[in-house]
Amino acid sequence: MTATIRKKNYSIAKSRHVIQWIIVIGTLLIGLRHIMPGEASRGGSFDSFCAFGGMETLLPFLFTGHLLKSTNLLNFSVLIATLGVSFVAGRAFCGWLCGLGAIQDFIAEWTRKLLGEKQHIRGKRSKTTLPLSLPATIDRPLRYAKYLVLLWIMVGSLYTAYPPLREFCPVRAVFGLHMTTLLWVTLAVFIAGSVLVERFWCKYLCPLGATLAIFNKISPVQIVSNSNQCNSCGRCDIECSMGIKDVPLHLNDPECTRCLECMDTCARDGSLELRIIKP
Questions:
Q1: Could you read off the pLDDT of 94-126 as tens digits, one per residue?
Q2: Residue 241 · residue 201 · CB < 8 Å
Q3: Which domains, from first to last, does the chain contain?
């Protein structure tokens, strides 16, 4: 059985962007807080607030009883909260609550405007050259890179004192406000990648996205397609920032970030609905 939980009576995109801005500003404030004097008295390092920091220090904690440096038990609390959201709504954290995801969305939007797109028309492909879509022969293999990054980090965490990703973590580069040469390089690569390919980090390199991908298959909150209403117009494919093809046929794809842009773009009421799938 299923229960419909939403009617299309407001802009999901606008609501999501408001939440994304709140997350970005909040994360920047955390970064600012940790470059001011008296860092230790305010709860430790910036890394302590990272959900993936909990993954990085998980195996060392289980095998040795010790946490990696710059992490603490707060990382596990943030990780548990992130996994809780994912268990209910799949990769919604990536689409709504991730600061890096938000920054990538903003960069893609600003890039199109700088290249001459005055106003984006929903469901219509942009005429700007960037961000571009990589050919399937390149895109598909690259999608697996984030799983290799995840494996490297988990194994590497057993042999390092600090989180393996720490010195070139894009979260620290964008929000940490305490820069090193390596973080400046990371920031430049992150921005360049996001200009060239929409959600570059999410598609190809994010180990947290790789961790959460499985939840799209098992979460009770799902996007479902009504084949009697859908006319396969392709509008949702155009708006999918993760580049999923034939969106109505792949609504629980591991790459989906549950941004709900497909629902907002759909021109036929009832074609796509957000539902709670009951056992």
A1: 999 999 999 999 999 999 999 999 888 888 999
A2: no
A3: 2-6+218-277 (3.30.70.20), 12-212 (no CATH)
Residues in CB range of 126: below 8 A, 6 or more apart: 112, 117, 120
C-alpha dihedral over 71, 73, 77, 80, to 10 degrees?
A: 80
Which residue carries 């396969």 as its tokens? 232
Residue 269 is classified by DSSP as T
Q: Tell me how far apart the alpha carbons of residues 30 and 47 are, in angstroms, rounded to a whole number.
A: 10
Q: Write out the two tokens for 197.
A: 């390919």
Per-residue model confidence as pLDDT tens digits over 209-224: 999 999 999 999 999 9
Tens digits of per-residue pLDDT, 57-83? 999 999 999 999 999 999 999 999 999
Rounded Cα distance between 254 and 41, Å, is 40
Beta bridge partners of 272: 225
Instruction: Say which amino acid occupies 125.
Output: R
In whole angstroms, give the CA distance from residue 195 to residue 109.
9
Rg (CA), the chain: 19
Residue 219 is encoded by which pair of tokens?
């979460």
Q: Output the six-digit token pair for 154.
A: 């988990």
Q: Identify which of 273, 227, 11, 216 has the alpha carbon closest to the alpha carbon of residue 122.
A: 11
What's the pLDDT tens digit per position in 176-196? 988 999 999 999 999 999 999
**pTM of the shown model:** 0.93
How does 103-116 read in b/e, with b if 16+ C-beta sit within 10 Å?
bbbebbeebbeeee
